[in-house]
Amino acid sequence: MTQHGIQHTVKDSVITLSNDGVLDGWLKGVRRVVSPNCNQRPADNEISLLVIHNISLPPGQYGGDHIERFFTNRLDHSLDPFYKEIEGVEVSSHLLIKRTGEIVQFVSFDERAWHAGASTFKTRENCNDFSIGVELEGEDEVPYTDAQYEVLVSITRCLTKEYPAISIDRIIGHQDISPGRKTDPGKAFDWERYFDQIKAKSDISTEVV
Length: 209
Ligand SMILES: [Zn+2]
Fold this sequence. Notes:
Layout: H1 10-20, E1 22-23, E2 26-27, E3 31-32, E4 38-40, E5 49-55, H2 66-71, E6 95-97, E7 103-105, E8 111-113, E9 120-121, E10 124-125, E11 131-137, H3 146-162, E12 171-173, H4 174-177, H5 191-208
Parallel strand pairs: 3-7, 5-11, 5-12, 6-11
Antiparallel strand pairs: 1-2, 4-8, 6-7, 9-10
Helix pairs in contact: 1-3, 3-5
The protein binds zinc ion.
Residues 53, 174, 182, 184 line the site of zinc ion.
């Protein structure tokens, strides 16, 4: 499938995020595909958790705009047998990072996106209430791209600056808050690499900003 939309190079994405940050709950300089699948966060729910996911549509295929369509209820369900299983399902995430490193934002961080479903973090249920969801285009067993790690690190730095209650120990996988029900981002996600890069780049951020 061909890739639609504006392409950001990894370098551009990093520069954009480092310099621009968040405005009114939206990452500046990032393409928006606004999803209706969201609602208000309940009162007194400070954003304090970052949840990493994966998705590919059809499963195992990359590129194209099917994820964007799924998150905005515009997917043609005749295109793949798997799509019958997800017909009528209304979900979203705040962000998607494609294999190329391109970022799409669907929901303002101020709103509750519908990414985690039934979930518990340290005895607290309904993680959507107080979290930001980031989808990586991919699968549990397939290594993520260098571009995705680069962009995810930049986004993480940006979000932890904007929402300081997201401490490093409050960045987790969907598999950790919905065990037995969800397996993403899976074995392929290299947490050590991710956290090492966050720490390494933290020193640079004080220089840049
Ligand atoms: Zn997930």
